[in-house]
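Subgroup meeting minutes
Present: P.N., E.W., G.H.
Scribe: E.W.

1. P.N. recapped why we're keeping a running log of single-chain structure predictions: easier to compare across weeks, and new members can see raw inputs and outputs side by side.
2. G.H. added today's entry (64 aa).
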Amino acid sequence: MMSVDAVVLDYHDCLLRSSDLMLLNESQWINDNLIGFAFEYVISLLLTGMLNYAGEVGDAGDHR
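Output recorded in log:
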């Protein structure tokens, strides 16, 4: 019988499974899935922040 490694998080192009998260509870090296998720999450936050900032700057310059 094959064990099922349940999907815990599906975020953009990243899929984290329970075995990936177990690495965080132990003194283990993190894997590519965790690194990929962290990268996707940080990039998403940065892009959202830049888009919000660009909208604020655009609104400030709109004097109609």
